[in-house]
Design a protein that fits this description.
It contains two helices and eight strands, in the order E-H-E-E-E-E-H-E-E-E.
């Protein structure tokens, strides 16, 4: 058995790519548009997992990835609203320095829902309300401000 990907539905491609790629640092590895099915699939990999193309396989077949599914508006221009359920849980990614990552996210307007008070774990949400757990690679970092004093913000 091999882990392939997690799929999440998104409402806005540009807003989602801004969050996942520009703010969180993921890399787009494959995109497919299906006119008959009226959807776009975008596969992203964590920057440390970015694959190389080999043996003619799609990049999305070579690395664990996040599949963003965008369902096109209907003939009236209406789009489906997605409400995240707590039964989904979250996506988890290991980072080299949790304080640096959280600071970069905050500087780019992302709310830190659960600050890394313990130097090890934080939670943020995507524009579509998907919870992301960020975990410090290796040992916990020494607790430091402003994180130690920061309160939780919303749910995660």
């Amino acid at each position: 058995m091999q882990y392939l990907h997690t799929m999440v539905r998104i409402r806005d491609i540009e807003e989602s790519l801004d969050f996942y790629c520009n703010k969180l640092g993921m890399v787009e590895v494959f995109r497919r548009e299906d006119e008959k099915g009226r959807y776009t699939l975008i596969f992203l990999a964590a920057n440390d997992d970015e694959p190389s193309m080999r043996d003619g396989k799609r990049a999305s077949d070579l690395t664990p990835s996040l599949e963003l599914t965008y369902n096109w508006p209907d003939e009236n221009g209406d789009t489906e609203e997605y409400e995240g359920g707590r039964n989904f849980g979250h996506l988890a990614y290991r980072v080299d320095n949790i304080y640096d990552v959280c600071q970069k996210l905050m500087d780019n307007g992302v709310v830190i829902n659960r600050p890394p008070r313990d130097g090890y774990m934080a939670f943020v949400k995507s524009p579509d309300g998907i919870s992301f757990e960020l975990l410090q690679r290796g040992e916990r970092l020494e607790p430091q401000e402003p994180w130690v004093s920061m309160e939780n913000n919303g749910s995660w």
